[in-house]
Specification:
The chain has 238 residues and is an alpha/beta fold. It has 7 helices and 15 strands. Helix 4 links the parallel strand 4 and strand 5. It is globular.
Length: 238
């Protein structure tokens, strides 16, 4: 059963959002528990681990952005959705890896679309991993926690929510490991996780965390085919 939190210091706003989420989840026939919080402090003190959090930004005492920063330290892999009446914090939302940024008032169609994608991502989160070696030690890297690999000769930098992990491996060996795992080599120096692609053009790929990665001209057409396939599989309406 999914666990969802709604945090907003406006009581009526908080109650209405919780009711709307419950209605949509019932329509989707997905059981869930929804808890309401009137402040960021209350949310952070909660003992439960929430799968999806809807968080207002402009709140008294502890605002939504500071709440999100603290929340991320406890739950780096959970889905965080901002709901705000202001566009002012859109770019800051990237820093805490927000799944979506919704502007009030949120219409039912948009809310349902975001919920569908959030639920799909939560339920399909993969536990696949690869084992890498560094200084005679083995480390398990979960694929869903990797944004992209950056290759510099035999040095590989793994970029994810916890920062950068560096080890040594040949690019060919790494590509073989990741075959059919949702990764794509868009450039000789980069292997990206297609699940984290937020946008693209003929020159670069934009990831959900705001990172821009160059794409080789000869790789563009294949990239488009693969990323659109992943987007459809993750609930995107294209």
């Amino acid at each position: 059963m999914l666990s969802i939190a709604v945090c907003d210091d406006e009581v009526i706003e908080c109650c209405n959002m919780a009711k709307r989420i419950k209605k949509i989840m019932e329509e989707m026939k997905i059981p869930c528990i929804i808890r309401q919080f009137r402040s960021g402090g209350e949310l952070l003190q909660a003992l439960e681990s929430f799968d999806i959090v809807f968080l207002d930004i402009i709140m008294q005492d502890l605002d939504g952005m500071k709440t999100a920063q603290a929340f991320r330290k406890k739950a780096s892999d959970k889905i965080l959705i901002f709901v705000s009446s202001s566009r002012e914090y859109v770019f800051e939302a990237y820093d805490v890896e927000a799944f979506q940024y919704l502007l009030k008032p949120v219409d039912d169609r948009k809310l349902k679309s975001v919920l569908q994608k959030a639920v799909f991502k939560t339920e399909s989160r993969s536990q696949e991993f690869i084992i890498v070696s560094r200084e005679r030690q083995k480390k398990k890297l979960f694929l869903d926690d990797i944004y992209y690999f950056e290759i510099k000769g035999r040095v590989v930098d793994v970029h994810g929510p916890e920062g950068i992990f560096t080890y040594y491996e040949q690019i060919g060996e790494l590509e073989n490991k990741l075959q059919d795992k949702g990764f794509f080599r868009c450039h000789k120096s980069y292997l990206i996780n297609l699940k984290y692609v937020d946008g693209y053009n003929r020159k670069e790929v934009i990831l959900e965390n705001g990172k821009k990665i160059v794409i080789a001209k000869r790789r563009y057409d294949e990239f488009v085919q693969k990323v659109l396939k992943v987007m459809r599989e993750n609930g995107g309406i294209l």
